[in-house]
């Protein structure tokens, strides 16, 4: 399973990203009054968990339904205030559904800018001279592979821990980038990549690797 691909410029800016397989993480639990988690009502945009966690519900998760009624910002779909509803003991017990929030464009840009100095620090901390920096970060639920070109552009893939064929895939993506992006006379370096042919071919190669673990050169 391949979650997504990110391309970071040599100066640390995010110039391309694509979500290939977005894992949907939801948790639904029944609560009694008062709630044993704290909810934050953020400027009428969403209701999220700000303190406490239980049985798959974590800080940062967003409330998506109350008693199977979908939410719309800080209101229920039928127009009722979520805050008022949850402050009324008569409405309990209540079933709440939470999900992991979708990452915004600004959050993606911020994370890309954070990876840039981490990559540089890793290069400097290496006991071996001329270290290439971070090539693999592995957690219990995912791994992140990074390939840096000679010009400093970084290609990053986030996958499941058992996904194979990633090293070859990274180099194949670099070939697509060279063929469809760099050879485009209208593309300016360091600028966001907007190329339909690049994205189309990238999606095809991601599907292929996800299913077979093999990259056709």
Q: pLDDT average, as an integer?
A: 86
Q: Indicate the structural class.
A: alpha+beta
Question: What's the alpha carbon Rg, rounded to whole Å?
Answer: 22 Å
Describe the main β-sheet briefly.
5 strands, antiparallel
Give me the number of helical elements.
4
Report the helical percentage: 25-40%
Oligomer: single chain
What is the percentage of strand-forming residues? 25-35%
User: Any idea what the shape is?
Assistant: elongated
- Tally of DSSP β-strands: 12
- The SSE order reads EEEEEEEEHEHEEEHH
Strand order in space, largest sheet: 2-1-12-11-10
Distance linking N and C termini: 20 Å
Tags for this entry?
alpha+beta, five-stranded antiparallel beta sheet, 4 helices, about 220 residues
Helix and strand topology:
Blueprint: E1 2-8, E2 14-19, E3 26-31, E4 38-42, E5 46-51, E6 62-66, E7 69-72, E8 75-76, H1 82-86, E9 94-99, H2 105-125, E10 136-138, E11 143-148, E12 154-159, H3 166-182, H4 196-212
Antiparallel strand pairs: 1-2, 1-12, 3-9, 4-5, 6-7, 6-9, 7-8, 10-11, 11-12
